[in-house]
Amino acid sequence: FPFAEVEGTFDHVKHFIQIDIDQQKLGKRHDADVSILGDAGEAIRQITEKIEEKTDNGWYRANIDNAKNWKDYLQSLEQRESGELQLFQVYHAINQVADEDAVYSIDVGNTTQTSIRHLHMTPKNTWRTSNIFATMGNGLPGAIAAKLEMPDRQVWNLAGDGGFSMAMQDIVTAVKYKLPMINVVFTNERFGFIRDEQEDTNDNFYGIDIADVDFAMIGKAQGAVAYTVTEISQLKDVFSQAVADEKDGKVVVIDCKISLDRPIPVEHLELDPQLHSKEDIAKFKERYYAEELKPLTDYLQAEGLEIRQYQWKETL
């Protein structure tokens, strides 16, 4: 996690155990009381066998309720039927038609963040992205590789307009080698993730605007079947047809012209009246359609637990 130092992520952590398959990462961002070289999943399974199970308690119940509130919030965004087309409804359309073992190739930036939140993944799905920092454009080549490796499974490439622009010429590669897949482009005419960072850290925006591109026309020029979506009401028919096209052996490009809405920043959730004014909370909730979203402290207090504040962080 490269931002651990500047965010103060581990400032309140007393004991630190790090598990990593790469020994060069051990102790790199934080001094570790225990360093374990190995696969994290296997290590945690073995550790779990040696510890006693804790009984249900207020901390656990509060977090279960908090997680449900968060999931309900995400689904309320996904299932909106009116207003501008947002990225959230596009994910809902994907979830409605994707195969249960679909493979998702995810480009970086906001698409990574929003795919984690809004794709309804199961153990039967496969997810791939680049684990190297700022590797825009990896979605389409990743989808091509996935289709070559797993030719009998449905493959999706999800990318923003910035990332897709960097590799869109390889649509013709997928067409040439008969690699059917569905490419979804989230077009908002900006480098969204960078713009969001600049909003939080800079006084001005710089170098984040992108000219609008007709990605459907570009897809058709390379031999793909292509669609443009501008309204929520178009999603169901377009995505149903796209799946039929893919099953018919075609490469599909869907250019979704989404709003400029920023995904809610969870690094600084302005929801807690102990930390923020009523006016700031109201503005925050209105901007992110989060009227029903509650802070974790509400659930902790409902369980009778004492809350201590560490700067903007909340902890028990």
Question: What does the model show?
Answer:
- The protein has 316 residues and is of the alpha/beta class.
- It has helices spanning 4-7, 40-48, 58-78, 87-97, 110-118, 139-149, 161-165, 171-176, 192-201, 215-221, 235-247, 278-287, 296-302; strands at 17-20, 34-37, 103-106, 126-128, 155-160, 181-187, 225-229, 251-257, 308-310, 313-315.
- The strands form three sheets. It has a six-stranded parallel β-sheet, with helices on both faces.
- Helix 3 packs across helix 4, helix 3 (58-78) runs antiparallel to helix 13 (296-302) and helix 4 crosses helix 11 (235-247).
- The longest helix is centred in the N-terminal third of the chain and has 21 residues, at 58-78.
Descriptive labels:
globular; alpha/beta; disordered C terminus; single chain; 10 strands; 13 helices; six-stranded parallel sheet; two-stranded parallel ribbon; about 325 residues
Q: Which structural class matches the secondary elements? A: alpha/beta
Radius of gyration: 22 Å
Average pLDDT works out at 93
Name the helicity range.
Answer: 25-40%
Brief characterization of the structure:
The chain has 316 residues and is an alpha/beta fold. The protein is built from 13 helices and ten strands.
Furnish the topology, listing elements before pairings.
Elements: H1 4-7, E1 17-20, E2 34-37, H2 40-48, H3 58-78, H4 87-97, E3 103-106, H5 110-118, E4 126-128, H6 139-149, E5 155-160, H7 161-165, H8 171-176, E6 181-187, H9 192-201, H10 215-221, E7 225-229, H11 235-247, E8 251-257, H12 278-287, H13 296-302, E9 308-310, E10 313-315
Parallel strand pairs: 1-2, 3-4, 3-5, 5-6, 6-8, 7-8
Antiparallel strand pairs: 9-10
Helix pairs in contact: 3-4, 3-13, 4-11
